[in-house]
Structure formats: structure tokens, C-alpha cells
Write a sequence for this structure.
């Protein structure tokens, strides 16, 4: 992994209203099949993608919110959520899915994938990436 | 679009032989799909097929082969969680071939 | 007049514009990503004050928003109710 590029996917759109959220998730999952150092950022309306309790049976669209829980299996376990974006929308961490990954090296211990960050912390994380993808 | 006959029923498929609607899946169509590939389904095959169906039910996607291998190893034991074992069962590629028999859509970007 | 807003209030100015143009007797219906504007704890909620507001239930459910999260006085409708509202108004303005 040492010479793998650090790639970050930045998600800023709500799910269902546009196709960006699902497209991003598909690209992340395909990309994760290769050895990359992947992280995700959710900010602005992108934080809505991670909310609990989504039920799309009434609108005739695929509910892809369960797929975020598979990210840990795909070794995508650095998920940054922008605190300001949550607050502006009246959301807290409790409104989001509890995403975890299992650490094979520590007897499959469950660890949190989501990291709640301030704007300035997120700014530092972005500055540290090699490649940014925007959705 | 194509179709497969199993036990007197017709199942719609896409051009590559994957079921058009995963809700139409049953064990009969899985066995017929396998027979078309000269493959006889054993208990070991069913373990993987059932695992894939449960995985899809929970996450709404098929796992990539790397993910499948690791998860099978965790669930069914290390002797089964390796690509050699899975390729012996599904020589056309574990994720691709097993997903087909499980009635799942073709996995994106994997073998 | 019926005003339709289908965009998130945090990703554009549709809700702001719609609510500033609405007159007495007009109704606002939030659909698709517009339903995020109906959440009581959100910063956009004050825009709805003093207006007659409805939201489309199936779009709320899709986004995991339960009715207890909505601002006070908001009316939740289904697709049939949507049709009734369109019928009951002489004009429909969609703030796309």
C-alpha cells in the first residue's frame, strides 16, 4: 500500500433527487477492488446519503442506503463527515447509520468508520490527498 | 434478453444469462444454469450461493471477489476462504459464476 | 396558486425564492429533495413560517425523515393528495 495513491471521493449531493450519490458509490466500490488508499468525504447535502431509516418503496427507486454498510468489507473505512453540514441541516451523528469495519489483524474487532470533522480538519485531510473525485 | 426453462417454468434473463429479476430465482433455475455450464451443484456450491443471496439481501450489491473470499473465510472457515477453493467450485470466476447461479446481477468490475 | 419546490434548500435558492414570492392563499408543496426544507431542526425551517405548507410522504420516507422531525403545521400528503392539490389550484408554479 505504500505507493498506493491517496484517493478521496467528495460527496455533496442528496440521494435520489439526482444520480450523483449512487454513481459515486458504484465508482467507489469498483475502485476498491484495486489496491488503493480510499477515503470518502460527505459534506453539504451529501450528509443526507448516510441517514438512517430510508425507505424508497413509495417512490419506485432502489434504496441504496444499505450498501454504505458494505464499505467496511471493501476496506473503505475512512469516512469523513463534515460537522457544520450536519448542524446546518438539523442532524446529529445519531441520525446517521453506524458504519463499521472489522480489523482482520485484531481478531475482526469492530471499529467505527465515520469520523466527524470540522471544516478546518476536513481541509487538512483534503490537502493530504493525491487525487480528488467530486460527486 | 433471453430466457431459461427450468421445471416447466420460464425465467427471463439478460444477454449474458443473468436473471432479469432476482425475485424470480429459485433452486431449480440455479441448477439448470449450472448444468448449462456442465457444472453439478454440490453442498459446497450451495454454501457460496446462499451466502451471496444473503449478502445481496443485506447490502443490495454483490461483493467483489476479494470481499467474497474474505467473508467466506470468516463465515465458513479459512480452508474455504481462499481463491483456490472458490475457483475449483466456480472455474469461470467465483463472483461472476456464483452470482449468476444465485440470481444476482452481474457484479460490477470483478471476476 | 400552488408552488412546487423539488430542490434542497441547502443546495440552491428555490425555497427562498418561492417563499418570498408566495401570497395569501397560496400553497407550497415540497417534493423530492425539497422535503429536506420541512425538517424543524434545519436552518431553512424559518422560511416556511406563515405559509401553508405540504410535503409528499413517499419522498419523506425515501429520505428517512419521520413526521416527528417536521416543522409545526406541515401537512403530509400522498400522490392522490398531490393530484387533488394541483386540481384545486388555478395555477402551478414549479421552482425547478
Amino acid at each position: 500500500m505504500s505507493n498506493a495513491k491517496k484517493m478521496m471521493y467528495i460527496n455533496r449531493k442528496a440521494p435520489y433527487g439526482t444520480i450523483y450519490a449512487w454513481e459515486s458509490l458504484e465508482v467507489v466500490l469498483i475502485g476498491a477492488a484495486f489496491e488503493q488508499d480510499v477515503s470518502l468525504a460527505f459534506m453539504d447535502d451529501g450528509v443526507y446519503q448516510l441517514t438512517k431509516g430510508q425507505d424508497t418503496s413509495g417512490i419506485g427507486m432502489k434504496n441504496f442506503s444499505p450498501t454504505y454498510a458494505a464499505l467496511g468489507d471493501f476496506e473503505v473505512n475512512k469516512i469523513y463527515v463534515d460537522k457544520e453540514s450536519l448542524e446546518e441541516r438539523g442532524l446529529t451523528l445519531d441520525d446517521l447509520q453506524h458504519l463499521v469495519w472489522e480489523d482482520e489483524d485484531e481478531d475482526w474487532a469492530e471499529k467505527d468508520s465515520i469520523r466527524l470533522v470540522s471544516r478546518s480538519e476536513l481541509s487538512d485531510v483534503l490537502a493530504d490527498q493525491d487525487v480528488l473525485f467530486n460527486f | 434478453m433471453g430466457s431459461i426453462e427450468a421445471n416447466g417454468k420460464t425465467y427471463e434473463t439478460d444477454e449474458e444469462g443473468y436473471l432479469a429479476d432476482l425475485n424470480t430465482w429459485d433452486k431449480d433455475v440455479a441448477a439448470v444454469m449450472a448444468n448449462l455450464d456442465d457444472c453439478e451443484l454440490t453442498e459446497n456450491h450451495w454454501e457460496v450461493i446462499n451466502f451471496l443471496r444473503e449478502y445481496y439481501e443485506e447490502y443490495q450489491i454483490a461483493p467483489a471477489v476479494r470481499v467474497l473470499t474474505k467473508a467466506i473465510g470468516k463465515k465458513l472457515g479459512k480452508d474455504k476462504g481462499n481463491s483456490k477453493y472458490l475457483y475449483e467450485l466456480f472455474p469461470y470466476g467465483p463472483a461472476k459464476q456464483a452470482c449468476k447461479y444465485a440470481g444476482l446481477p452481474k457484479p460490477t468490475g470483478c471476476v | 396558486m400552488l408552488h412546487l419546490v423539488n430542490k434542497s434548500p441547502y443546495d440552491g435558492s428555490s425555497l427562498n425564492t418561492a417563499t418570498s414570492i408566495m401570497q395569501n392563499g397560496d400553497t407550497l408543496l415540497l417534493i423530492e429533495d425539497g422535503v429536506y426544507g420541512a425538517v424543524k431542526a434545519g436552518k431553512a425551517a424559518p422560511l416556511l413560517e406563515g405559509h401553508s405548507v405540504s410535503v409528499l410522504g413517499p419522498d419523506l420516507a425515501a429520505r428517512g425523515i419521520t413526521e416527528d422531525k417536521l416543522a409545526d403545521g406541515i401537512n403530509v400528503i400522498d400522490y392522490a393528495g398531490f393530484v387533488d392539490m394541483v386540481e384545486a389550484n388555478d395555477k402551478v408554479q414549479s421552482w425547478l
